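protein-disulfide reductase: structure, please.
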Amino acid sequence: MAGFPKVDEAPEGGGGIRSVLTMGSLVSPSGNEVHFAELDGKIIGLYFAANWYPRCEAFTPVLAAAYQQLKGRGAGFEVVLVSCDEDRPSFERFHRTMPWLAVPFGDLQCKKRLSERFQVEGIPRLVVLAPGGEVVHPDAADLVHRYGERAFPFTAARVAELEADDQRKYASQTLEKLFSIDGMGKEFVTGGNGQVPISSLVGKTVGLYFSAHQCAPCMKFTAKLAAIYSSLKGKTEDFEIVYVPMDKEEDGYLRSCSDMPWLALPYDGAPSRALARYFDVREIPTLVVVGPDGKTVTRDGRNLVNLYFDMAFPFTDAQIRLLQEAEDEAAKGFPQSLRHRGHRHELSIVSEKSGGGPYVCCECEEQGLGWAYQCIACGYEIHLRCARDEEGGSAGTG
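Here you go.
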């Protein structure tokens, strides 16, 4: 495996971590001044983040859990927050949610220097430094998301080990193993009539639905998925969905279950977190589809449902290719341009090859891919099907 990109790996003038962090001291979450002795000889993660950005808010507890586990086993790892917050109260509120030190809010020169030195253009960002100040990994946030504390010490060799282990697990994956990856070994899921043995799902196409109550995108997609589930269950017995709860409270879990006609994992946290980490679930709702052989068919089930409804079943590459070919053929019958009630400019038809990449339809607010009507000037895009509305679209002359 090739090494990571070099990002200013040679510390200026030597001096280890102190050559990178040039201020006189750091601050604790309580606001107390802390001197550099806390960092000597340790691997350091510079955490660039801000409380106003949802991805930072979501990633911080993930990093905190890994940090606490590493501290508990004496791994020699520390994190230093480099805040991108715009005012001191926001910085202090955000820092109090963390168990690590921070660059003082008022040290603007140091924060600017660090951002420039490590070419920080997006957050959250976790730059990992060796005790000598050289870069171990330019951004380990993805590794922490995927592997938690197992990613330590974040070297290329360690990442290669983890990825090889992933490949072995995916190659030997079965449905029973998926429900045992937390080490607890689930034999049942719950349904409307009580417990359902996982063994009864073997040989079926199974959707693992990661969702939560009071999540607006989840509620919208759950309603659509429920209609498609009902349609498919009326056609085949070889399909099932299992709710993998991402709810923060049991009351939300129970409310979610009441809105869903399929099976569910019990609300005990560990199996859901283990599955979310295994499939690298970053946002909800997410629909992972597992085939009859127990292998992962797709992690993009949500998008496929939005694009093709129940026709996406069984979600295989072969089925999606057939649907795409049918869509290519159907597109030949659409006008090259039209005007739509939702936009003032003329829209032109585009394909994936001519600019119709992934988008969110401005008419129905669902995901789209490939064929679309697009305003080149404004980026306004709608599904071809949303243009079929006689009141909403009229053929252009192009």
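Notes: Residues 1-14, 390-398 have pLDDT under 50 and may be disordered.
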